[in-house]
Specification:
The structure holds 3 protein chains of 3 kinds. Chain A is mainly alpha-helical. Chain A has 6 helices and no strands. The chains are: A mainly alpha, B alpha+beta, C mainly alpha. Chains B and C meet through helix 1, helix 2 and strand 9 of B and helix 4, helix 10, helix 11, helix 12 and helix 13 of C.
Chain lengths: 184, 329, 633
């Protein structure tokens, strides 16, 4: 009896697991919905901090927040020197990324715009500087830094020198702080 | 663009048993001995085994009869084991002596120093300065002065790679955090194909390096040219191309010395003299206008997983960009 | 309860009733629950064999996919991502889920019978090890189907398998699979060692132990000394990936080369862990085929033991290109060559055993011939690779791929297939067809040579390992096509094998108790053996008791019949020491294995899973070991 129940539960669990988990695809040449030139130029015109309410802010179908995307984003974060201003999420010249304060919104599309078009007070526009694929991976990593991605998908470390504890071990209670004052 | 654009190529893919490099020749000689003797051992053992298996000797020898010393199987086992020990000792000795001889070859005074840095999935080459010019950076094509020894400083910033040019010398692993110095000599002029031998990710298959051995005078001329910055483009199309290069994503990663593109030379191949190279994408494609255009538009078609992104440029911009790159002789 | 009953001994029972009473005491309870809680070494070994065969099939399909992709230049059928996962899964499946477990499976079935025991030592641990192995294999294959299968090669070198370059959870599944197979293999090794040392039939002193049992004993010791090394390094890899330690991170003072030392300290003995059982199988087949005990028995045993020892002293020959000091490398050249000496001695013992005898050319013997026709190429290329200069040219090229496959398919799989034909009557009471068996041998030998000889040549021509495609002008097309053809022929030989097994399973059980007229104890029982193996535990006076005449085997009497009992003998001279009750069937090993699985899979995602997950494991273990009168351990 117990055995049958156990096996039944096990089989249901395995089937449910297989069904609930989708295949984690890795696409090498994704062509995510890159904003059309017109849309991009309109977006560039936004000067107000906080921006206007974004129209239909949806991420492209190629956007993922799986473990692979987040850890590739982590590498990109190092390689494109985001560390220079934002440190490992703690902020410095730029605002902190590990808190729950999102000046320009926390949706993937909003973060995408922040990186690609830049923001006032020093955030440069990376639109033509970072390949599209990696830009979206960066978005997933930035969201991971802010605690918006389940911690089971987070990578531990890069192969660089590191001063902060691994992301996968950081407390999920993100500090609530205002934007960090920039040096004059 | 579904069809591949193959490299029509005269470079040798190498055969480490008939190489041209001095070190590789020494190894090949040693290898032929090993192979020959091992083949003999294999034939002898097989013959013995099948004789034992198939020949019915029960009629000839009465097992209960007293057998002579030489008919006792244990004696023959002893003979076999002794022979094995002798042959293997010979192997150990020749292997050791070959290794010593190789060490002596590597003691020679190097003609120049080159830093070879393996990346996923291309080769960065940093030539040191000499009395005729300053040091410079290039990629994927290792020019060597024929008949002269050069010293290579091998390293890798990402994963483990291994440099193997079968015709010239043996493999050397390039392990992050561990630099390895080796000396290399190509005695004859020619183009020898090398490749990454340690599995390094998606495009391990397309990580070739061309070793181009040329007479020392020609090598000196080549490096003097490489040391100079890229010429300022002339003509409308190349000028426009230079603009595209620095404005579009290209300049983020690639360096053209003398241009205003920011780039870091360690994230992508240095393109200062890209038009002078024989191949594109680490030995994958022949370097010509058609291939260059195709490669820039969709590198992921040729090297899926490579870091270079798909570029959706206007046809005009693309033509200008290629025209600019073609001026980088 | 039973304890209240007075003990009933086999001397009190009429001979006609003994079998029935023993069956009643030893059989598993009927139904599914009884099946799950079985601790009988024979049924667990059958499960092991079937599971390993399924993994062989899966790994084989992957190898055919690899060969199709490489059969012609510029094939783009598999993407590099898919290809990397496929070759990694092929290597991992074949090494960890097929080769080691299948050898253990045969040992779990045969060793207790061969030493004249009714049980394998620690039968519940045996059940546990099977379930852990099964669940680990399922885990990694489900991950593979979800496209999170490992992709960094079966030896997962960091940094490629590390947290930065091994993006996603892929390498975690690999590293955790290692933990599963380690637990399983270590448990089986302990069982085999204790079975051999404590459960031998009275009279089977050390010099009367069959060669196969010696080989499994040495293999088990190799596992016990080698596997902790990979447990350590795979755990370090998981720690690097999950909690950000820096074992393999040179930027923080770690060392990428550390992995290679630890991995190959396991990885080289691993080859012999697979090869030594095969040596034992081939010896058994040759002894029976030539109908005499192996010539030079002490030498054969010493060579097996010294292969076991030497296998720990040559791991650096996998690392000759990493730039280690030259003198150290030369030392490992010498030790790598040295291991060929006992291997050679072993081959000469076999030749001497056959010499002067009329050897019956049965299918098992033909597979030993297949071993000679294929393994020698693998062994001798291995001798060449021991040389530092040669290795530095050949390593990481297709020469290595050819070499390892010659060693594994020639040195391990060929004797294994022979052993399967040889012991199939023991497993099932039926013969496999000799006709189809001969086809199997012939196709196998042709296939292996056609598949792997071209690879040696490809390596010489500069083709590197693990490339998903190659250009036309490299000139590698023809040889690769030949290799693919060879792989197809090997696949056909296995098709013949499958047909042979299926045909045989429809025949009646008519093989007889000792169909090969063999001399060792496993054939003293009926075929297939009853659940209690031996009605009376045998007492022997020679290495090949069945050839000594009808009355050469004595009998131990005085064991209880209404409960499971065995006798324990002394390690050296196998003098009977005590009667020992046998653990009863129970569900707890299965429960403990499930809990272990949950804990290990959880720890891929959360470090805390190790803490919380250990509670159910502890519950399982406590239930398993909870003392109940008369039903201990």
């Amino acid at each position: 009896m117990i055995a049958r129940a156990l096996i039944g539960i096990l089989m249901i669990a395995v089937i449910a697991l297989s069904l609930s988990l989708v295949r984690v695809e890795r696409d090498f040449a994704p062509k995510p919905g890159r904003p059309s030139p017109a849309e991009a130029s309109v977006a560039l015109g936004t000067l107000k901090p906080g921006g206007d309410a974004l129209p239909t802010a949806t991420e492209p179908s190629g956007y993922r927040e799986d473990a692979a995307s987040v850890s590739n984003g982590q590498s990109a974060y190092e390689n494109f020197n985001c560390v220079g201003c934002h440190q490992h999420g703690g902020g410095g010249i730029g605002p902190a990324l590990i808190d729950d304060e999102w000046i320009y919104g926390s949706l993937p599309m909003e973060i995408y715009r922040t990186i690609s078009e830049g923001r006032p007070n020093g955030m440069p526009a990376f639109r033509e500087k970072i390949p599209e694929t990696q830009l979206w991976q960066l978005v997933s990593y930035v969201r991971a830094l802010g605690g918006l991605v389940p911690s089971v998908r987070l990578p531990a470390r890069t192969d660089h020198l590191q001063a902060t504890p691994p992301l996968s071990l950081q407390e999920r209670q993100v500090p609530t702080s205002g934007s960090v004052e920039t040096e004059p | 663009m579904t069809a591949l654009l193959p490299l029509t190529d005269s470079s040798s893919y190498g055969n480490f048993l008939s190489p041209s490099g001095v070190s590789a020749q020494l190894v090949a000689q040693h290898s032929w001995w090993l192979i020959g003797i091992c083949a003999l051992i294999e034939i002898a053992t097989l013959t013995l085994f099948f004789l034992a298996l198939l020949r019915d000797q029960t009629k000839q020898a009465n097992p209960s009869a007293r057998v002579g010393y030489l008919r006792r199987p244990t004696v023959w086992i002893g003979v076999g084991v002794t022979t094995t020990v002798l042959i293997l000792s010979g192997f150990v000795a020749t292997s050791f002596l070959t290794d010593r001889a190789l060490a002596r070859i590597e003691g020679a005074e190097p003609y120049t120093h080159i830093e070879v840095i393996a990346h996923q999935w291309w080769w960065e080459l940093r030539y040191s300065g000499w009395e005729g010019g300053a040091g410079f950076v290039t990629a994927n094509e290792l020019h060597l002065p024929a008949g002269k020894s050069v010293s290579l400083q091998l390293s890798s910033p990402d994963v483990i790679h291994s440099l193997w040019i079968p015709e010239i010398d043996r493999k050397r692993d390039m392990i992050p955090g561990r630099e390895q110095s080796v000396q290399l000599m190509a005695p004859q002029t020619g183009i020898f194909r090398g490749r990454c031998a340690e599995f390094c990710g998606y495009q391990h298959a397309h990580m070739d390096i061309l070793a181009i051995a040329e007479p020392p005078e020609q090598f000196d001329r080549w490096r003097a040219a490489q040391a100079s910055a890229a010429p300022t483009p002339t003509g409308e199309l190349p000028l426009h191309g230079a603009q595209i290069f620095s404005q579009a994503v290209c300049g983020t990663c690639h360096v053209v010395r003398g241009s205003d593109a920011p780039g870091y030379s360690d994230t992508a191949p240095d393109l200062t003299h890209v038009a002078g190279r024989l191949t594109l994408a680490s030995g994958l494609l022949e370097n010509n206008v058609v291939n260059l255009t195709a490669w820039i538009s969709d590198p992921q078609h040729f090297k899926p997983g490579a870091k270079m992104t798909v570029n959706q440029l206007d046809p005009q911009d693309l033509r200008a960009l290629v025209a600019y790159l073609e001026t980088l002789q | 309860m039973k304890d209240a009953d007075p003990p009933l001994y086999d001397t009190d029972v009429p001979a006609g009733e003994l079998a029935g009473r023993l069956s009643a005491a030893w059989s598993d309870s009927p139904g599914f629950r009884g099946w799950l809680s079985s601790v009988d070494h024979k049924s667990i070994a059958r499960r092991y064999l079937i599971t390993a065969s399924v993994f062989l099939l899966l790994g084989g399909i992957l190898s055919l996919m690899i060969r199709v992709q490489l059969s012609a230049p510029n094939r783009r059928w598999l993407s590099p991502d898919a290809y990397n996962q496929i070759f990694t899964m092929h290597g991992t499946t074949m090494m960890f889920l097929f080769a080691v477990p299948v050898m253990e499976a045969v040992a779990v079935f045969i060793v207790p019978l061969m030493v004249g025991s009714r049980i394998i030592a620690f039968p519940r641990l045996n059940a546990f090890s099977y379930w852990v192995y099964l669940f680990g294999g399922i885990m990694v294959w489900v991950a593979f189907f979800l496209n999170i299968g490992p992709d960094a090669g079966w030896f997962s070198y960091p940094p490629l398998a590390g947290p930065e370059y091994g993006a996603g959870k892929r390498s975690d599944f690999w590293a955790q699979l290692i933990t599963f197979t380690e637990i399983s293999a270590l448990a089986v090794s302990v069982e085999i060692i204790v079975t051999v040392f404590k459960f031998r039939a009275p009279g089977m002193s050390l010099q009367r132990i069959p060669i196969f049992v010696w080989a499994m004993l040495v293999t088990s010791f190799c596992i016990i000394f080698a596997m902790p090394s990979i447990v350590v390094c795979s755990s370090m890899l998981i720690a690097d990936r999950l909690v950000g330690t820096h074992f393999f991170n040179p930027a923080e003072g770690g060392d990428a080369l550390l992995w290679q030392h630890l991995f190959w300290f396991f990885g080289h003995p691993e080859v012999y862990i697979i090869f030594l059982p095969a040596v034992g199988m081939a010896s058994t087949i040759i002894e029976t085929g030539a109908r005499r005990g192996i010539v030079g028995y002490p030498l054969a045993v010493i060579s097996i033991v010294s292969i076991g020892f030497l296998s720990f002293g040559l791991w650096v020959h996998h690392m000759f290109a990493t730039g280690l000091p030259r003198v150290g490398n030369s030392l490992f050249t010498a030790s790598s060559m040295a291991i060929a000496i006992p291997t050679g001695a072993q081959l000469f013992c076999w030749i001497a055993t056959c010499w002067g005898r009329r050897v019956r050319l049965t299918t098992p013997v033909l597979f030993v011939a297949a071993f000679f026709l294929t393994f020698l190429s693998g062994g001798l290329t291995g001798v060449m690779l021991a040389s530092v200069p040669f290795d530095q040219q050949a390593t990481d090229s297709y020469f290595i791929v050819g070499h390892i496959h010659y060693v594994l398919l020639g040195g391990a799989v060929a004797p294994l297939l022979g052993a399967f034909y040889y012991w199939f009557p023991k497993f099932s009471g039926r013969h496999l067809s000799e006709y189809w068996g001969r086809w199997h041998v012939v196709l196998y030998v042709i296939g292996v040579n056609l598949a792997f000889a071209p690879m040696l040549a490809l390596g010489v021509r500069g083709m590197t390992r693990r490339i998903y495609t190659y250009p036309d002008h490299a000139g590698w097309g023809a040889l690769n096509f030949a290799a693919t053809l060879g792989a197809g022929i090997i696949a056909m030989s296995f098709l013949v094998f499958t047909v042979n097994i299926l045909r045989s399973l429809r025949q009646p059980r008519n093989a007889g108790d000792n169909p090969w007229d063999a001399g060792t104890l496993e054939w003293a029982s009926s075929s297939p053996p009853p659940v209690y193996n031996f009605a009376y535990i045998p007492v022997i006076i020679s290495r090949t008791p069945l050839w000594d005449g009808a009355d050469a085997i004595g009998q131990v009497t005085g064991l209880q019949v209404q409960r499971k009992e065995v006798i324990v003998t002394r390690g050296l001279d196998a003098v009977p020491d005590l009667r020992d009750p046998v653990p009863t069937p129970t569900l707890w090993p299965f429960v403990a294995a499930l809990a272990t699985t949950a804990m290990l899979i959880g720890s891929i995602f959360k470090p805390s899973a190790l803490v919380w997950g250990s509670i159910p494991v502890a519950v399982g273990m406590i239930g398993w070991l909870y003392p109940r009168r008369g039903k201990n351990t």
